[in-house]
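look at this record:
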Amino acid sequence: MNNQPSKSLILAIVLVLFAVLSRIIPHYPNFTALGAVALFGASQLKDKWQALLIPLVALYLSDLFINNIIYADYYNNFVWKISPFVYIAFAMIMGIGWWLRGRVKTGNVIKASLTASVVFFLLTNAASWQVSPLYTKDFTGFIAAIVAGIPFFWSTVAGDLFYCGVIFGAYAWFRQQYPAKLA
């Protein structure tokens, strides 16, 4: 019986740590690896449970750290809460990653990355429009919420494209250099 962790599990742990670190180290707003990790995990990991859990675990662990360490002064107690719309957006991004399974080529990864950025932008800004008192609950308020999010959209696009290039590119390079290691 082999007590060694599987290569897939090691890759999953590395991806979670990478995604969490990209959110907690100083960075430009929304320029993180989380979208790329969601796409990569769903498209490449053999174990479906890992592909589904990796982005959600990374998101939740980094949310806990951000809310309770970085922004601790804003809360009276330990904060367990999440923004459900962000998690729904990442579930949808994982769906895009499922579409990528067996289709991983540069052009498809770019399309998936851009689509993921748009999905995240539209869903989270629509949610902001619905829950924030800053916006009227009409078409004008919706447009105002979308316009307010545009600066964040561009950094989401840049982050998703950059980290997809890093993660998918590094994985392809590693598979080419060391094919037996990932078998």
